[in-house]
Design brief:
Layout (H helix, E strand, L loop, with lengths): L7 E8 L2 E13 L5 E5 L5 E2 L6 H10 L6 H7 L7 H12 L18 H7 L12 H14 L12 H14 L5 E4 L5 E6 H13 L3 H12 L1 H4 L5 H8 L4 E5 L3 E5 L5 E6 L7 H11 L11 E3 L2 E8 L5
Antiparallel strand pairs: 1-2, 1-11, 2-3, 2-9, 4-6, 5-6, 7-8, 8-9, 10-11
Helix pairs in contact: 1-5, 1-6, 1-8, 2-5, 2-8, 3-5, 6-7
Amino acid sequence: MTKFSIGEVLAELTRSGVVESVHAGHFVMLNSDASVRLSKGDPSQLTYPRSTIKSIQTSAMIRSGLKLEPRLLALVSSSHSGAAMHQDGALEILATVGLTEKDLQNAKDKPLGEIERRTWANNEPTRLAMNCSGKHAGMLATCVAAGWPTANYLDPAHPLQIAIKKELEALAGEEVSLTSADGCGAPLFLFSLHGLARAMRAITISTDPIHQSVVQACRDFPEMVAGEKRLTTRLMREVPGLFMKEGAEGVEVATLADGRTIVFKISDGSIRPFEALMVAALAEFGINVEDRTERVYGGSEVIGSIRACLTRG
């Protein structure tokens, strides 16, 4: 079994000046030349990247025959909130190859977005509402374009999944250590956190028109990559050239147009410190954005906060 390391403290929650809780994990920042600018924990820790690599999966789909406009490419690369524009977009992708919602094989769920989930209320979970439906619609459309079977498109031995693994390994500069299954049902690949950083830097600075089209689609349509009131969408709107993608179990990636890269994994799987960490990491690169992380209250008074701990000591 792969050895798991909790890493180092990356963020602290304070109350009246006292540290009440901590979030540990692994963190690495790369300069534009790929040198390590800052790291904590163990960047060699084997990590499931979860949804952070959807842009790489989309690139492999285009290489295999997928043809979509940028708005829908962003949706294929998304963990969407489940708004009407996301669900309608997934149906639009399927319709391009004569398929319907019934052809999706991803897990069923209610919308991921907080607002969208409240609006959904007590309605039953669906495959279309699930945050990965755009990716799965793209996978199915790719299979039709390539002449591959659709019934087993989630099988790791399927030509599509082999193509995705090859794309990932080429960008990461290392081989996948283990293939598992993601929460949506698609194959999930285990490799190092540093490899994930290399992969995201590589796709960002790549001169390959396919890589360029996917990353730019996400920058141009950040509302399709995540959704309103989501950190990913807000920061991509606010920071020129920023590409960003979150994943389940506390994984986050972000890159700037020149290849500077931020990647981290929170060991307890929490997303609570994401904003504080991203704000601090961007500040390390000289980019200042507002930290809107929820403050710590004592009654109606703010008496603490969540703060990033990127430096030692």
